[in-house]
C-alpha cells in the first residue's frame, strides 16, 4: 500500500484581494516516492497549488481556505512555514531570490546553521550535497556570479541541506538555455531515484520535462484539476489542445502523418516509444514525401556585419570577428547559450554599442555614420520583459510617446499611432490603463510603441519567455502578420527551439562570441556539432528521425514545410 505524502480533500482557496477563488474543489493525493508534473497555462492555479503544500498559503499569502490539505499526515493550517520547511523544500524559478550565503558552501549550509549543527557535522554534508548536484569545484564561488544552470544546482543543494523528503521545482527551465534545461531535468530525475523522496515539478513546457519520465501529470485549468493521468493517457487525449498546452513535436508529427495515437506504446517517452507497423508506414511516407522548396530571399540587405569584434573589458571580446548579412523581410532566429554574444550583437545593430573593429551596416550605410536616434528609426528593439519598457499610464500615451518626444505634429502622431495600434489589435483598448492588461497584451504594446516609428527591422528578445503556449501563440501570429503583410524583418533572440522551427527560415548561431553557423533552421537543428557547441538540444523530431532510420535534416525540413503549408491554408 502506497503511503500518501500530500492529500488535498475538497480544498478551495481564495486570495484575500480577489473576488473569486483561485482553487476550486481540489481532490488530489500524491504518494511518497512519486514524481509528479503539475501542468497548466498561466493563471491555471498550478503555482497556488504548490504554495498550499509548502506553507506560503496560508502563512504568507493570506486568504480563505476550505477543505483540507495535509503534508505527511500534518494538516498544513495547524503547522507553520518553519514546520513545513522541515518536510518540503522549494526551488524557485528565480534562483537569485533564494540565495542567502556569500559562497556556494555557505548557501548549502544555511539550513544546517539555523539548526546550530556543529561545523564538523556540516562540512561532510555540504560536500555530499555539492557532489550530488555536480558543484564540488565551486564551493568557494559567489552564487550570484554563476551561470543560470549552476545557480539552479546550488539552489537544489541548499534545499537538500534541509534534509527534506518533498521537493517542489517551480518552473525550473525558465531561465536556462536548452542544454542546461536538459541537465536540470536529468538532475531532478536523479534525485527522484531516492524512493523516500517525492518530486513535484511545476511547468508548462511538456516536451522538455518529458526528457525524463514522470509518474503522473496533473493538468490544472481555471483553478481545477482537469486531468490526473499518466503521460501516455494525456498525450492520447485532446486535453492539451483544449487547455492551450503545446504538445511534443513528435506527437504533432504523428498527427500530421495521420497516425492513430491509441495503439502506440510508451507514447510519453520518445526514447522508448514503440510504433505500430501501420503508424511507422504512415510516418515513413509522410517524411519521404517531397515538399516545395522554400524560396530564396533576394531582397536588399538591411543589416550586415563585416568582421565585427566588440569587448566590454579590454582583451576580452564578447563578439569576435562576426560576419553575416540579413535581407529585407527575413525571419531569423539568433540562438546560442547564455553569454554567447547574442544580446551584444543586438546592441551593435541598435547602435547602443559600437564595434571595436569591423563594420556594422544599416541599409547599406556604415552604422558609425548614424546616430542612435537615426538607427532607432530603422531598427526597433523589444526587450524580453515589457515592464522594463512601459513608462506611460495608458496604452495610447505609451504608443504615442516616441513620436511625442520627437515633437511631431499632433495630426502625424495621431495617424501613426492609430496605424500601429490597429496593426497590433490594440485600437479598441487604446484608452485602457496599462496596468490592467495581461502580460501578452503588454508585449503587444511594446511592439506597437516601436512599430510607430516604422522601423525596417524588429528585434525581439526572448518573445516566448515567461509565457504559456496560448499567450505565446497569440503574439507569434501577430509578429508573423507584421512580417508577411508589412514586410518587417524579424530577428528573434531565443533559446526556444520550437519558436525557431515554427517561425523562422534561418538561424544564426553564436558560441563564445563567434558565429559558428548561419544556415536554414532545419539544417542547424540537425547538426550534432553545432547543437553541442551552442548548448542547444535536439528536439524530439531528431529522436523520431533516428527511430525511423531517416536523416534528421530530412525529417525536420519536411515537418517545417508541412507547418508552412498548413498556416497558408
Which descriptors apply to this entry?
38% helix; 6-stranded mixed sheet; 569 residues; 23 helices; alpha/beta
Describe this structure in a few short sentences:
Helix content is 38%, strand content 23%. It is α/β, with parallel strands linked by helices and 569 residues long. It has a six-stranded mixed beta sheet with strand order 6-7-8-3-9-10, with helices on both faces. A six-stranded mixed beta sheet has the order 16-17-18-13-19-20, sandwiched between helices. Strands 2-1-4-5 form a four-stranded antiparallel beta sheet, with helices on one face.
What would you say this structure looks like, in words?
It is a single chain. By secondary structure, the protein is of the alpha/beta class. Helices cover about 40% and strands about 25% of the residues. β19 and β20 form a beta hairpin.
Amino acid at each position: 500500500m502506497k503511503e500518501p505524502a500530500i492529500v488535498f480533500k475538497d480544498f478551495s482557496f481564495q486570495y484575500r484581494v480577489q473576488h473569486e477563488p483561485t482553487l476550486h474543489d481540489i481532490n488530489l493525493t500524491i504518494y511518497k516516492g512519486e514524481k509528479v508534473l503539475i501542468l497548466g497555462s498561466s493563471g491555471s492555479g498550478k503555482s497556488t497549488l504548490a504554495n498550499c503544500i509548502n506553507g506560503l498559503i496560508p502563512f504568507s499569502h493570506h486568504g480563505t481556505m476550505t477543505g483540507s490539505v495535509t503534508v505527511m499526515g500534518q494538516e498544513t493550517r495547524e503547522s507553520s512555514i518553519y514546520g513545513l520547511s522541515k518536510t518540503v523544500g522549494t526551488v524557485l524559478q528565480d534562483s537569485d531570490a533564494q540565495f542567502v550565503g556569500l559562497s556556494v558552501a555557505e548557501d548549502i549550509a544555511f539550513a544546517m546553521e539555523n539548526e546550530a549543527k556543529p561545523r564538523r557535522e556540516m562540512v561532510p554534508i555540504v560536500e555530499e550535497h555539492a557532489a550530488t548536484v555536480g558543484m564540488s569545484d565551486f564551493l568557494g564561488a559567489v552564487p550570484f556570479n554563476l551561470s543560470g544552470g549552476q545557480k539552479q544546482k546550488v539552489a537544489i543543494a541548499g534545499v537538500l541541506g534541509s534534509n527534506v523528503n518533498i521537493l517542489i521545482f517551480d518552473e525550473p527551465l525558465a531561465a536556462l538555455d536548452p542544454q542546461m534545461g536538459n541537465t536540470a531535468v536529468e538532475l531532478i530525475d536523479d534525485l527522484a531515484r531516492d524512493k523516500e523522496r517525492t518530486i513535484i515539478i511545476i511547468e508548462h513546457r511538456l516536451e522538455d520535462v518529458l526528457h525524463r519520465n514522470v509518474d503522473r501529470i496533473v493538468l490544472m485549468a481555471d483553478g481545477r484539476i482537469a486531468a490526473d493521468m499518466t503521460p501516455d493517457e494525456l498525450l492520447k487525449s485532446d486535453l492539451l489542445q483544449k487547455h492551450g498546452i503545446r504538445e511534443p513535436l513528435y506527437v504533432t508529427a504523428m498527427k500530421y502523418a495521420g497516425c492513430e495515437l491509441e495503439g502506440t506504446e510508451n507514447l510519453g517517452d520518445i526514447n522508448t516509444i514503440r510504433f505500430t507497423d501501420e503508424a511507422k508506414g504512415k510516418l515513413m511516407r509522410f517524411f519521404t514525401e517531397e515538399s516545395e522548396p522554400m524560396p530564396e530571399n533576394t531582397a536588399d540587405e538591411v543589416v550586415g556585419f563585416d568582421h565585427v569584434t566588440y569587448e566590454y573589458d579590454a582583451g576580452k571580446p564578447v563578439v569576435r570577428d562576426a560576419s553575416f548579412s540579413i535581407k529585407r523581410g527575413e525571419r531569423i532566429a539568433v540562438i546560442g547559450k547564455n553569454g554567447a554574444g547574442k544580446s551584444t550583437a543586438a546592441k551593435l545593430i541598435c547602435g547602443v554599442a559600437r564595434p571595436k573593429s569591423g563594420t556594422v551596416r544599416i541599409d547599406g550605410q556604415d552604422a558609425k555614420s548614424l546616430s542612435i536616434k537615426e538607427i532607432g528609426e530603422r531598427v526597433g528593439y523589444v526587450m524580453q520583459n515589457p515592464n522594463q519598457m512601459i513608462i506611460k499610464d495608458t496604452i495610447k500615451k505609451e504608443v504615442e510617446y516616441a513620436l511625442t518626444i520627437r515633437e511631431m505634429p499632433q495630426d502625424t502622431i495621431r495617424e501613426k499611432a492609430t496605424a500601429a495600434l490597429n496593426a497590433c489589435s490594440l485600437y479598441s483598448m487604446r484608452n485602457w490603463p496599462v496596468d490592467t492588461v495581461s502580460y501578452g497584451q503588454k508585449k503587444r504594446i511594446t511592439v506597437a510603441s516601436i512599430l510607430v516609428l516604422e522601423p525596417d527591422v524588429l528585434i525581439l528578445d526572448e518573445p516566448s519567455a515567461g509565457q504559456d503556449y496560448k499567450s505565446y501563440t497569440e503574439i507569434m501570429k501577430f509578429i508573423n502578420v507584421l512580417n508577411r503583410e508589412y514586410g518587417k524583418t524579424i530577428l528573434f533572440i531565443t533559446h526556444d527551439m520550437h519558436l525557431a522551427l515554427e517561425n523562422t527560415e534561418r538561424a544564426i548561431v553564436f558560441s563564445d562570441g563567434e558565429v559558428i553557423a548561419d544556415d536554414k533552421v532545419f539544417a542547424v537543428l540537425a547538426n550534432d556539432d553545432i547543437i553541442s557547441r551552442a548548448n542547444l538540444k535536439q528536439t524530439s523530431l531528431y529522436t523520431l528521425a533516428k527511430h525511423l532510420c531517416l536523416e534528421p535534416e530530412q525529417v525536420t525540413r519536411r515537418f517545417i514545410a508541412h507547418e508552412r503549408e498548413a498556416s497558408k491554408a
